[in-house]
Amino acid sequence: MPTHRLPLWRYESRRAGWAARAAPPAALLVTLVMALLTASGGAGHDQVGQLLLTGLEAILPLAVGMAAVTIVARDGCRELQLSLPARYAGTLGRRLGVLALVGAACAVAFTAGVWLSGWWAGPNILASPLVWAPPMLWLTGLTVLLGMLGRSVVLATSVVSALWLGEQLFAGSFVALDWTRPFFLFTTSRVGVGEGWLTNRLALVGSGLLFVAVVVLLLRRPHLLLTEEEE
């Protein structure tokens, strides 16, 4: 990255807010604490490994998605910037990029630590990004999209949280149906790495990119980002 652009990224990192910097490590810290408590309670190696895997595939993506919608909602100068939608799209993209970078760095470090300690229960370590990246992209893209369409943080986070919880509670139903199986977020930790796993990961990436594409198109209609008070 050119050195003259570093101050801009530092500024956008601050503007992204504490949630963008704290949510990913906090999610994985909670996962680690839960795993330690489970291990101290006499749980087996496989059970602890699955819990650590769940943190990467389920808890981290949800935390990143929730943090992403706050980035969209917290900018108090949107009404001034939205007269130049392309410029604001770049600004928003950099701030979300900060969140994505923090989330990816935390995921890679966490994966390396789990693997080196012998608790890794996922696929080949070279394929480990497919555990967390597809659900993170999918949940983040959907949350930002809903936040823009509904112009409400509460609505976006409530819908996505309900969907996340529904997939956890009714995992068997999502896996059993042909049309929902490719979009099941927790295939690695709930089903395992087997037939259909790669198809599931690619389907999540494809639909997640579709969410992102719709968000970019909506940024061409900047009034969609304004709340009733700002209008």
From TrEMBL:
The keyword Transmembrane helix applies. Keywords: Membrane, Transmembrane, Transmembrane helix. The chain crosses the membrane at residues 58-77, 98-120, 126-146, 153-177, 197-219. This is ABC transporter permease.
